[in-house]
Amino acid sequence: MVEFEKRKKVYTHLNIAPLIDVVFLLLIFFMLSSHFISQPGIKISLPYASTTKLHPEENIIISITKDNTLYLNDKLVNLNNLLDQLSARIKESKGKAVIIKADEKIDLGLAVKVMDIAKQANAKDLVISTRKDAK
Fold first, then answer.
1. Does position 60 have pLDDT exceeding 80, yes or no?
2. What are the backbone angles phi and psi of residue 127, rounded to the nearest 5°?
3. What are the tens digits of pLDDT across the range 85-133?
4. Number of C-beta neighbours around residue 61 at 10 A
5. 3-state secondary structure string across the chain
6. Global pTM?
């Protein structure tokens, strides 16, 4: 009588416990590191208005912060060079509106000067940006 050898069974078992540990460590790392990323931008508290309309963001934007700092499309400018830079942007954009985003605590005289400069630069449309009144 001939005895046959039994075939040895190979057990393939994947232990996923270390993999789960690594995934949780990565999750904690990304959650903590995303908290420390500062969002760039210009801090402006827009005034409220009950009659507001949405305008596309591709227009030319002049931002005035509460410390009377001027930005032309996120680029720092001053009153002396605003006319030249704004005129160049208006010529490039071919008739896009100029949107003024001014903080509600700025001096009204500065806002009037900026509007006057925008009109001198041949801006066709001049829009003052506001927030929707929360009623």
1. yes
2. -125, 135
3. 888 888 887 767 888 888 888 888 888 898 899 888 888 888 887 777 7
4. 20
5. CCCCCCCCCCCCCCCCHHHHHHHHHHHHHHHHHHHCCCCCCCCCCCCEECCCCCCCCCCEEEEECCCCCEEECCEEECHHHHHHHHHHHHHHHCCCCEEEEECCCCCHHHHHHHHHHHHHCCCCCEEECCEECCC
6. 0.60
Length of the chain: 135
**Look-up of token digits 């050898």:** 5
Q: Is 127 helix (H, G, I), strand (E, B) or coil?
A: strand
Q: Show the domains of the chain with their CATH numbers.
A: 48-132 (3.30.420.270)
Cβ neighbours, 10 Å, residue 24: 10
Q: What is the DSSP letter of 95?
A: S
